[in-house]
């Protein structure tokens, strides 16, 4: 048996193996896309396709670059977005795509809002807060931070107004204007280009407010949700007014983009930094939603 013959046989075997793997993954993917509301756990797929979960995981990673669980999640998210775009109410869209509750929409973001400190409940007593201001395309902005993260973002017509505001917000804190905030300020301003790094937050709020803020963090750049839709996302469909109040209490606008929450009618609703600025931000995002 020649060496070349062995090579050709080996290559043929490898092509068949690759083809078999691709066929298996395609069969599973076809089934998943048609049964998003069903049980699609790894254990179920293992039994459904008579393949060990370990082989299933390995083959899926080789062919798609994702685990089966991650692929199922991505399919469900895409289907949910399509259903919502077609006007299907949130509850039906969520449960119809295999989700047992709305919590999955914001759980990851909720964990980012747990970095709060009791001193802020006392007007910042004992806290050392550094801040910096800058002119921007919609007025002036102030960003303040502690050693733990951003604690305040304010927008107004002038620097004096902003500095008075931060003193009223934290009357007992040690406030210092500092160049050390420059990098954080630049990161917040980069929002205007559609980008923002994952800034740590040091904010305080009620548990409900945190849930609202976490849900708002899931609204994509260039999109909006109504107060009622956010309330439904939280599993509390009658809490639309409480959602509006939580938006008004948001201490870090732009980072938590509450300007993306509007009334059911399509009217903009309120916005702490001013409705004109809310309109400006939404128009900015609408002009280039894919940034």
Secondary structure: elements and pairs:
Blueprint lengths: L2 H32 L7 H7 L4 H12 L3 H18 L4 H7 L10 H4 L17 E9 L2 E7 L4 E7 L2 H11 L4 E4 L4 H8 L17 H10 L8 E2 H7 L6 H9 L12 E2 L12 H13 L4
Parallel strand pairs: 1-4, 5-6
Antiparallel strand pairs: 1-2, 2-3
Query: What's the CATH topology label of the largest domain?
Result: Arc Repressor Mutant, subunit A
Biggest sheet, strands in spatial order? 3-2-1-4
Q: How many β strands by DSSP?
A: 6
Strand content: 5-15%
Distance between the termini: 59 Å
Number of helix segments?
12
Kindly name the structural category.
alpha/beta
CATH superfamily of the largest domain: Homeodomain-like
Number of domains: 3
Query: What's the story with the biggest beta sheet?
Result: 4 strands, mixed
**Based on the structure, what is the oligomeric state of the protein chains?**
single chain
Q: What top-tier CATH class of the largest domain fits best? A: Mainly Alpha
CATH architecture descriptor of the largest domain: Orthogonal Bundle
What's the quick description here?
The protein is α/β, with parallel strands linked by helices and 291 residues long. It is built from 12 helices and 6 strands. Helix 10 crosses helix 11 (240-248).
């Amino acid at each position: 048996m020649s060496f070349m013959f062995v090579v050709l046989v080996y290559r043929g075997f490898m092509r068949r193996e690759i083809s078999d793997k691709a066929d298996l993954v395609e069969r599973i993917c076809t089934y998943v896309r048609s049964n998003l509301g069903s049980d699609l756990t790894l254990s179920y797929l293992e039994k459904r396709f008579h393949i060990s979960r370990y082989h299933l995981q390995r083959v899926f990673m080789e062919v798609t670059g994702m685990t089966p669980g991650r692929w199922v999640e991505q399919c469900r998210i895409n289907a949910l977005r399509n259903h919502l775009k077609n006007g299907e109410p949130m509850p039906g869209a969520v449960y119809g795509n295999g989700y047992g509750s709305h919590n999955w929409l914001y759980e990851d973001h909720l964990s980012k809002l747990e970095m709060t400190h009791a001193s802020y409940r006392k007007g910042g007593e004992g806290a050392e807060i550094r801040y910096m201001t800058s002119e921007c395309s919609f007025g002036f902005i102030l960003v303040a931070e502690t050693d733990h993260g951003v604690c305040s973002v304010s927008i107004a017509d002038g620097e004096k107004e902003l500095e008075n505001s931060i003193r009223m917000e934290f009357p007992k804190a040690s406030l210092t204007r500092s160049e050390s905030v420059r990098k954080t300020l630049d990161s917040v301003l980069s929002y205007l280009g559609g980008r923002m790094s994952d800034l740590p937050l040091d904010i305080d709020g009620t548990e409900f407010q945190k849930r609202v803020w976490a849900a708002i963090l899931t609204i994509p750049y260039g999109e909006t949700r109504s107060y009622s839709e956010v309330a439904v996302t939280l599993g509390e469909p009658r809490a639309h007014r409480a959602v509006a109040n939580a938006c008004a209490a948001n201490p870090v606008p732009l980072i938590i983009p509450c300007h993306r929450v509007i009334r059911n009618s399509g009217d903009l609703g309120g916005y702490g930094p001013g409705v004109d600025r809310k309109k400006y931000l939404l128009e900015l995002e609408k002009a280039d939603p894919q940034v």
